[in-house]
Amino acid sequence: MTPCASSREGPKGKSRNLVERCFAKLKQWRAIATRFDKLASRISRALSSRP
User: Fold this and answer.
1) DSSP assignment of 1-43, as one string?
2) Total domain count for the chain?
């Protein structure tokens, strides 16, 4: 259960919000990075298997 917005007010709530947004951005970048790695490995395998 999520606490009400009034309990998140103040400096503690602001820092928590900043940390939560930072982790959300890191998760997005991780998804992009792992997707790129997968594509790069496919490309390198395709190039190495050419005669």
Assistant:
1) -PPPGGGG-SHHHHHHHHHHHHHHHHHHHHHHHHHHHHHHHHH
2) 1
